Amino acid sequence: MGGTPIAEADFVRSVADALQYISVYHPPDFVAHLASAHAREQSPAAKNAMAQILVNSRMAAIGGRPMCQDTGTVNVFVRIGMQARIDSRRPIAELVDAAVADAYTDPANPLRASIVADPIFERRNTGNNAPAVTHVEMVAGDSVRVTVAAKGGGSENKARFAALDPGASLVDWVLRTVEGLGAGWCPPGLLGIGVGGTAEKAMLLAKGTLMAPIDMTDLLARGPSSKLEELRIEIYEAVNALGIGAQGLGGLTTVLDVKIATHPTHAASKPVGLIPQCAADRHLSFVLDGSGPATFTPPPIDLWPQIALSGASKTRRVGLDHLTREEVAGWKAGETLLLSGRLLTGRDAAHKRMAAMLDRGEPLPVDLEGRAIYYVGPVDPVGDEVVGPAGPTTATRMDPFTDQLLAATGLLVMIGKAERGPAAIDSIRRHGAAYLIAVGGAAYLVSKAIRSSRLLAFDDLGMEAIREFTVEDMPVTVAVDAAGTSVHTTGPARWRRPQIRVGGAPVSP
């Protein structure tokens, strides 16, 4: 006979509360490892980016608001004991989806709905971030263990799979793959690697490893006790030697930890999955045994280090209301700016719609001449907020529209996160424009620079609508200047270190 039945309401409430919790609080192990990486970082740009992420994390914890505007696709792993019983007639996935809807529409702390129901055609937002991706496993015992995670689109889009030959080097493949990911996954973060089984098993192993405690500092201190731990350290050191650094700006730390899980596989196969986890590392596990819903205690605020951000004396102040091409031409890649004035917003759906209007010869609903546009989909505001957390989205998704908009509208400045592709960089150079980056993973911090917000166009697109923000001293870095120089090329090249493999053989990713 099993234990006390678990009430349906307790299951739903526990999952919903856990999702609210992880939107606000980083796991303590992540904060500790990021703080250590920040302390030893030598690249000024990367150190500043990590400082912004840590300050943002502390602000989110104090303010009870999401650390990142992309509150993610919900992933839930439910391990049900063979003797456990959930007192419900509904399937587990349906209970999870009910919890997701409750959590993401909570008026006290609304989370951004990012899920579209039809992935191929209409791509209409479901409005409550459901459905989740739910995995159910039957295990021994009389309780239910639940792990919830919220995975941002920027890092999830960088997931990779390969069917390697059995004799192929896992380390070489990982290095080539990570170097090709760019910075859209918002490093510094984690790498989850799954090896073995079948294609879907390898990817599931990789995702599952990201829920394990971060322990690389302890592992390095005590030394490896198995071949798998030796491999973790080898990949950790080799990836960091690539010099990618925080936000791809170049630096000593790209990953805080590397996790590897394996499963027996066919003799002819070596399936490998790799999933990066961004700086918004959000996951939590709890156990239900029929005694009531799970409860979650916020970590003490002194967990976070007290960090002062770079002073204004090291930055250039820029007024957005009277930008000129001559002023933009004076900015240099890697330079820090503080933006004040009126700033347009617009991302994937808005760009696609504007491009279609231009193709049809229709006037745009906003004048982009001499303006700056911010690639952002903010969280809805609460209380006296002007806007909720409003960090940048991955800019490469706007690359296909960049040349058309720069040529047809006179758009002057774009703001997002991560690198731009070669065609977009060439277009920026030819049009004398510039691309700036805000720190991915510092959404709550960025939102505090926004003084007002008004809807201008495409209100049916929800968080992807075009708005006009008025900002004051919004911190950004010049990523691509008017001459076409990209900090995402120059930064990592400066900080890249020689690769030395176990046994002394050099590696050329």
Structure description:
Helix content is 32%, strand content 23%. With 509 residues, it is of the alpha/beta class. The strands form 4 sheets. It has a 5-stranded mixed barrel. A 4-stranded mixed sheet has the order 4-2-5-10. The longest helix has 20 residues, at 44-63. The protein starts with 5 loop residues before the first strand and ends in a 14-residue tail after the last helix.
Q: What are the key terms here?
A:
alpha/beta; 509 residues; fumarase; 4-stranded mixed sheet; disordered C terminus; 5-stranded mixed barrel
* Alpha plus pi helix count: 15
Class derived from helix and strand content: alpha/beta
Tell me which oligomeric state these chains represent.
single chain
Topology, number of strands: 17
The level-1 CATH class of the domain at 312-488: Alpha Beta
User: Which sheet architecture does the biggest sheet show?
Assistant: 5 strands, mixed, barrel
Please mark out the parts with pLDDT under 50 across 5 or more consecutive residues, or reply none: 503-509
Helix share bin: 25-40%
Distance separating the two termini: 56 Å
Q: What's the gyration radius in Å?
A: 23 Å
CATH architecture group name of the domain at 312-488:
Alpha-Beta Barrel
Give the amount of beta strand, in percent.
Answer: 15-25%
What number is the mean pLDDT?
Answer: 95
Shape: globular
Topology-level CATH name of the domain at 312-488 = fumarase
